């Protein structure tokens, strides 16, 4: 049998029969949804799902920072980048004014 990654489980049949009850009984915990006694999916409360997304985003940011530290290209001053962005924004605004 596959390892369950939740302390609670419910069959797909139970979930279909009474989804509100299953969600209510889950409280703040994840629930393994079983199909023929095997995990088919996991049901997560909103707060737990949001926390996972936040952690994933933070990990992606950390990876991007680590990758940027290994970038051999010379650093560009933030003032230079913002000045170039301002110039591009002004250029787009001027073009839209001429349409």
Distance between the termini: 65 Å
Structural shape:
elongated
Tell me the series of helices and strands, N- to C-terminal. EHHEEHH
How many H/I helices?
4
Work out the helicity level.
55-70%
Detail the poorly predicted runs: none
Q: What is the residue-averaged pLDDT?
A: 92
> Total strand count, please?
3
Largest sheet: 3 strands, mixed
Rounded to an integer, what's the Rg over CA atoms? 24 Å
Number of domains: 2
SS-derived structural category? alpha+beta
Function: Antitoxin component of a type II toxin-antitoxin (TA) system.
Organism: Pseudomonas reinekei
Protein name: Antitoxin
Family: Belongs to the phD/YefM antitoxin family.
In short:
With 99 residues, this protein is α+β, with helices and mostly antiparallel strands. The chain has two domains: 37 residues, 3-Layer(aba) Sandwich (YefM-like fold), CATH 3.40.1620; 44 residues, no CATH class.
